[in-house]
From TrEMBL, chain A:
It is found in: Periplasm. This is Twin-arginine translocation signal domain-containing protein. The keyword Signal applies. It comes from Acuticoccus mangrovi. SUPFAM superfamilies: Periplasmic binding protein-like II (SSF53850). Residues 78-436 form the Solute-binding protein family domain.
UniProtKB/TrEMBL annotation, chain B:
SUPFAM superfamilies: MetI-like. It comes from Acuticoccus mangrovi. GO terms for cellular component: plasma membrane. It comes from the Bacteria. GO terms for biological process: transmembrane transport. This is ABC transporter permease. It is a multi-pass membrane protein. It is found in: Cell membrane. The chain crosses the membrane at residues 9-34, 105-125, 149-169, 198-221, 260-286, 306-332. Belongs to the binding-protein-dependent transport system permease family. Its main location: membrane.
Length: 515, 339
């Protein structure tokens, strides 16, 4: 219809009149319509190329649109997804995979082993244009020497050395199958604008940093999701997320502050869950400065009352840990407890000439607001240390500063840190946090390397897990690491929204329902 | 007058070039001197120390700061704004998508702040010496003493939660689709597309963030305008206008206000620049997809190419506002046209 001045005036006049009366319908829509879920979510994806960045907080968003070869049940058990069967060769140098034959991409094309090869071998190997960056999959799958496609539903991955963690990586960061034909046809830029995956939802609208509109994929191999439409509102500010659920503008809000989650859970019509997940909060420890002595580091661990921290900051909902792993995961040494003891801390410090009257001076880095209660927990720990004779100067730093100091090997004695590991596999905890060759390890101790390096190629899962339990126990006993608590995931939702909770904190609307 | 205005704009353009170079150099150097490593921030598990060194070399971080700056400046002049370290997308795309949203927000906040501020200033002037002025003084003090981000939260709690009148999340209603991008300005694009439902939704979503920004500006305008009006009201020409029998309203609007407006215009110019800074937290709180939201991610991840370009864009905007203020000066004050 042609636009005329009269039509414009008529339309604007009419709408203005409606506005004066209170605009109805879509204009004033602030809550969800039938079959729609509005989710107040704290983070956005940096890019819709799911192979590009390995950022733990955005994996749930990618899992709405893309699929991984394998996936996890709510209790973290490994489950088939695109891959139905897998088996390693005896030498651990190859991995046979069998795929479903009923998987469609959102553009209607069929997913085959060729797409898998493209995702995990061809794309990571592609030359990087000047000024461009390698995909994170190029680092994660660097041991892959080839993927031989033997049929549309079978292939064999081969590795330069045994990679027992390959199966774990098939359901961890970045491992999302992308469509070879579509990506090669439209190019990366268009793919990022209009991503196509095999996941339960299609992206129908995206505003960077603000909103993701998802529509259920009718031909999803695992059945169309119960919720037809999901609007993910990116609300970074926790107070605004609280307001969003309190006002019912959102049907669910994620990662609201623990005390607010507790308060909201007592409101009629709202349900609140506050649960420990597989991510962990720990102190990254070095042997620098005042922490060069094992006794001082161990004393620092004994002096931390983690139950008090749990009560004060998580209302008792967190789970204290000693080792760098979540309790109940295969690498956690369940039969070992360091315990809290001011007396032991004082005795250890006294053995090396320190005490409340003659404290050891250290610097304690912490971020402020990067994860819940980071700065406040650091201050509380510093106060606990002061009582036994460790005088910690708490310094708030940016995450990028931490990374620079980590790279340069100039981190101070202790740093408050959160580590994400949705898999629960010990290689993703100690394998990166304690291996002196890892760029994520603050503690560079060769005795840890000697214990960990054989485990990186150990194909027997039981031996590997037992090995990591021993590593974790050894590391704690020598003050190489100080676990604090498992991170906590808060979800506040309307009663009508039925939520599936995952022990790794995944938020997957495809597993939720309304009504 | 047009010639004078063009001369001013030309002069401003001349001054802008060295200003932009100086600002870009300053931002560039400061960012490089900070103890932060964007390369390490962006590497995944599995990366080695050698990978880190290679990435630092690829990003040019292993070169001297002057060398890095000259390369960046050369690329900038050739239209290459670089690739974002965090978003892995061209920086120009990210900024050009976010900028119109921020401009819409700032212009709305500015317009609202000017309307409320001028109206409040006139009311204070008319009520001078009375209870009304005292009351307005208290109100303006309260408005000034609370920062924008706190106003943002208070507005959300008041009009989003307690009395749920207005939306406070995002740019438009859930489920609504963005109109085809013609100008990049969503308000304009929705009108061009004939999508009045989208247009009104955009307007409603602008209200609270714009008010949060305007609240910081309005009381300043109120106070400066009132003070200027009081000063001008004592001038001889006002007394003579009164002797000629002109009504108080006509004296105020036809004589006193135009002569008292110059300091207020200067103030608006300065505050408009500050308002861009105020958008950072306001955009984060309201989930508003503008430059503020973008820069927060960029700073958290030490995304140097994005920070550098956004800083430059802010600088260009402030220079443009200064030029606009000078031209408005010309329009309002004929005496300046002869200089």
């Amino acid at each position: 219809m042609p636009h005329s001045r009269r039509r414009f005036l008529k339309m604007t006049g009419g709408t203005a009149a409606l506005a004066a009366l209170g605009l109805p319908g879509s204009v004033l829509a602030q809550g969800a319509e039938a079959g729609q879920l509005i989710l107040a979510y704290p983070t956005d994806v940096p890019t819709w190329d799911p192979n590009a960045r390995s950022l733990a907080p955005v994996q749930s968003l990618y899992k709405c649109v893309f699929d991984q070869p394998l996936t996890q049940a709510p209790d973290l058990a490994v489950e088939p997804a695109l891959v139905t069967e897998y088996s390693f060769s005896d030498d651990g140098l190859s991995l046979d995979l069998t795929f479903r034959d009923d998987v469609l991409f959102h553009d209607g094309s069929k997913m085959t082993a060729e797409d898998f090869r493209y995702t995990f071998y061809e794309r990571p190997q592609q030359p990087v244009p000047e000024g461009g960056r390698r995909l994170d999959t190029a680092f994660l799958w660097r041991k892959v020497t080839d993927i031989a496609v033997t049929s549309p539903t079978t292939c064999t991955m081969t590795f330069s050395e045994p990679m027992p963690s390959a199966v774990t990586w098939l359901y961890f960061l970045c491992s999302y199958v992308v469509p070879k034909a579509y990506l090669e046809k439209v190019g990366l830029e268009e793919f990022q604008r209009a991503p196509v995956g095999t996941g339960p939802y299609k992206v129908v609208e995206y505003q960077q940093g603000s909103r993701i509109e998802l529509e259920a994929f009718a031909d999803y191999w695992n059945g169309k999701p119960a919720i037809d439409r999901v609007t993910i509102e990116i609300v970074r500010d926790p107070t605004a997320r609280v307001a969003a659920i309190e006002s019912r503008r959102a049907g669910a809000a994620i990662d609201v502050p623990v005390r607010e989650a507790d308060r909201l859970g007592q409101m009629p019509g709202l349900v609140s869950t506050i649960d420990p997940i597989a991510d962990i909060v720990l102190l990254q420890i070095t042997k620098n400065g005042g922490f060069k002595d094992d006794a001082v580091r161990l004393a620092a661990h004994y002096a931390i009352n983690k139950e008090a921290i749990n009560r004060a900051f998580f209302l008792g909902n967190a789970t204290p840990i000693d080792a760098p792993a979540a309790r109940g995961t295969p690498g956690y040494p369940e039969d070992f407890e360091l315990g809290y003891s001011e007396e032991k801390a004082i005795d250890l410090l006294a053995s090396v000439g320190y005490g409340p009257a003659n404290p050891v001076e250290i610097t304690f880095f912490t971020t402020n607001g990067v994860f819940p209660n980071d700065y406040d927990m650091a201050r509380a720990i510093a106060a606990m240390w002061q009582k036994v004779g460790i005088n910690a100067k708490v310094e708030a730093v940016e995450a990028s500063t931490y990374q620079e100091r980590l790279r340069a090997g100039t981190l101070p004695e202790a740093t408050m840190y959160q580590w994400g590991n949705a898999t629960g596999d010990p290689v993703m905890y100690a394998g990166y946090l304690l291996d002196p060759n890892s760029i994520f390890a603050a503690m560079k101790s060769e005795d840890l390397g000697e214990m960990i390096h054989p485990l990186l190629v150990e194909m027997d899962a039981d031996k590997r897990h037992a090995g990591y339990r021993a590593v974790n126990k050894f590391a704690v006993e020598h003050g190489y690491t100080i676990g604090i608590v498992q991170a906590v995931k808060t979800i506040v939702h309307e009663e009508r929204v039925h939520v599936t909770k995952y022990d790794n904190g995944w938020i997957l609307p495809a597993t939720w329902s309304i009504g | 007058m047009l010639l004078v205005a063009l001369r001013i704009l030309f002069f401003r353009l001349l001054v802008a070039v060295p200003t932009l170079i100086a600002v870009s150099a300053l931002v560039f150097v400061i960012l490089r001197l900070l103890p932060a490593d964007p390369a390490a921030m962006s590497l995944p598990p599995g990366a080695t120390a050698e990978d880190l060194a290679r990435l630092r070399a690829a990003l040019g971080l292993d070169r001297s700061i002057p060398e890095q700056y000259l390369i960046w400046l050369g690329d900038l002049l050739s239209g290459d704004f670089g690739i974002s370290i965090y978003f892995r997308r061209p920086v120009a795309d990210l900024v050009s998508t976010a900028l119109p949203n921020t401009l819409e927000l700032v212009l709305s906040g500015l317009l609202l702040g000017v309307i409320v501020g001028v109206a409040g200033g006139l009311l204070m002037f008319r009520a001078r010496g009375g209870r009304g002025e005292e009351a307005l003084d208290v109100v303006s003090s309260a408005m000034m003493s609370i920062p924008e981000f706190l106003w943002a939260l208070l507005l959300i709690l008041a009009f989003g939660v307690a009395v749920p009148l207005l939306p406070f999340i995002g740019r438009m209603a859930p489920g609504m689709m963005t109109p085809p991008g013609v100008t990049g300005f969503l308000l304009l694009d929705s009108l061009i597309a004939g999508r009045l439902d989208v247009f009104f939704s955009l307007l409603l979503h602008l209200v609270l963030p714009a008010v949060a920004l305007a609240i910081a500006l309005a009381p300043l305008i109120m106070r400066v305008l009132r003070a200027s009006l009081v000063e001008v009201a004592g001038d001889d020409f006002v007394t003579q206008a009164r002797l000629r029998g002109l009504s108080e309203q006509r004296i105020l609007f036809a004589h006193t206000l135009p002569n008292a407006a110059l300091p207020t215009i200067s103030l608006i110019g300065v505050q408009a620049g500050f308002m861009f800074g105020g958008t950072v937290l306001v955009e984060v709180i309201f989930g508003y997809p503008g430059l503020g939201n973008l820069i927060v991610d960029a700073v958290r991840n030490h995304d140097l190419p994005v920070i550098q370009l956004v800083a430059l864009v802010y600088c260009v905007l402030v220079l443009a506002i200064n030029a606009a203020v000078e031209v408005i000066y010309l329009l309002v004050n004929p005496r300046l046209r002869t200089h």
